Protein 1
Amino acid sequence: MGETIEKRLSDLGITLPTPAAPVANYVAFSRTGNLLLTSGQLPLRDGKLTSTGLLGRDVDVAVGQEAAKYCAVNILAQARAALGDLEKIRRVVKITVFVASAPDFVEQHLVANGASDLLAAVLGEKGKHARSAVGSASLPLNAPVEIEAILEVE
């Protein structure tokens, strides 16, 4: 993959937004050594949630995957804000995907694929990562998905 990360984003029709600013007493990202950790990112597109509600009750897997994709887009936006250049990402180490789920919903892993697939498409081998997909009773602002990431960076 000789293309730049920005070119792959453009080819996918994705423009990274200005990253969301923290709304409480925390920071959007934290760097220690060669690790960059993001705070949980919601599925915001144009400043609004892409969807709301619980998976398995209000939201189906396809809509959840789209939400997870936008969480990953916002992770990349935070990484660009932290690093100045996405080419400084060596690899995505791990993502933790929180899925707001109805009690009987058991397909969190399928929802998480929305983020995993986007990261692999944009970053290639550097985008392949360890992952946890966790069901949650609810998430901030009634978001269906929230994702945090650990990145190895230059």
Protein 2
Amino acid sequence: MQPRPPVMLERLRRKVLSPLFDRLGYDLVPAAPDWSHRPTSPREVATLLESAAAILERDFAASGLTPDGDLLDSVRAFWDLIPTAPVRQRRGGSGFNGALQLYVAMRALKPDFVIESGVFRGLTTWVIRMARPSAQIFCHDPDLSGLHYRDPQARYSTADWSTAEWSGIDPARTVAFFDDHVAQGRRVVEAHARGLTRLLFDDDAAGHRIHAHGGPAHPTIAMITGPAHSPEPIRWTRNGRHFEQPADDALVRQAAGLIARAHAFDDLHRATGYSPARLTYVALHPAGGGS
């Protein structure tokens, strides 16, 4: 389990720092990950894990993925594993649900190569390593200064993944994971051009929900694969900034023709009580194919 903060530091936070930040309109909270709060009685633990596994079973069927053995066994293994995670984060990045989905998806997909675009503090890199111990992982992020975990076997770069040279990997044995707040339609097109067919996206959001997500990674997979929109553009405001997704977008049309199958996983909140996840699996048509 994650260690508790020192007593004196916690008193300082509660009595001095928190009231100060409150007057300024901010919340000051410990960087405790959501999985540090968990049921401990066997019955409740079993209910949580069985409920999560049942939901994941339905998501795997809808995605066309074959689990690596019994999904409940994988969920139990993750439950025991996640308290040892070397990354502490309360906001931003993946929580328990997102990490669980990524863990079971990577075990099912069994990639020998993983391209990770968007690393943040390194939790998802650690999850990928736990799921695929022998995989070669390529981590791309423009700012690697905030890493809490650096995989000793991974290759790190601050360059965009699309600028790298990938002739040395087999696309059929590769999975790309995007959590980089870059237009997801653009990532689909780039991946297809490099022969990749198996993609995972975080922060996929439909038009009516994108205002609640950090970073305007539009057009999202939901926008690309959803029903046809009216001629009215999708507009939203976040943190005082205004965004717009055009109704008639050439990138949406191009990406839509490359996607063979897409499924957004259930957020798992109703099963676990943890922060909702937003993982989407996308299978692309092989190079030379199309809809």
Protein 3
Amino acid sequence: MDGTAAKERALRLVQKHAVNPVVMFAHDLGFPPPGDALLETIGRRTGLPRRTPVCDGLAGEVFWLVAQRGHRSDWVRNIRANPRVRVKVRTASGIRWRTGTARVLEDDDPRERQRLIGEGGVARRLCAGASAAAATDPLTVRVDLDAV
């Protein structure tokens, strides 16, 4: 196993079994960590909702995401099968779900996108920085949110 594969495997295990359960529990209690959001896709094989903690990339009526593992990320594969998604975000009026249509942006610079996401405050900067450090094959995804 090369260094990148070993790093990816170790980080994925830490995220899956340590970080993501804590973030999901906080969301379930109604106290999402600042700088974080939830992405809900539809499983490409099961057809069931799949929720994934992500950095809060809300910018007006667009939600920006950077997949750390690129096309190998399960949620990216789910989006390719069904681009309709929901994001649970913190807004001025509280924490709420927003629906939208996602698309993978092959030509966007994911490192620059993470930097831009981080400009949304200290919590978003910490989330985006941790995500960038863990990224092995970053890929940008844009979600055009439906009108409210």
Protein 4
Amino acid sequence: MESRINGTQIISLPKIEDRRGNLSVIENDIVPFEIKRVYYLYDVPSGAERGGHAHKNLKQFLVALSGSFDVVLKDGEKEEIVTLNKPYEGLLINPGIWRELQNFSSGSVCLVVASEVFIEEDYIRDFDEFIHFKDITDK
């Protein structure tokens, strides 16, 4: 399913149902990039926000392993809010998209699969700088 924000997409994960519990898998044929880093957010306090940045090159795939949270996406012109609440669906975010994670439910866990290792220079942490970056790269 395509998002209204170009450069983002909801991707369904394989869901293997079993009476003993369900299983989903993330492999390189599921996400359209080589996986180089995996981390997760948990114990996010009520009202706290995460993200608040964009990437120049890194691609991310976010999954709500438990609970739910909203992902606010901005491309410099449009804004969209995507709620993640299914452990068998993830949100692909390509470079050049601003993201903010908010409204974490109690006990939620956000899995992040990334195309690159952590490189601070890849982050755009100021929204005005992001808009300038978009103006330059979109021309």
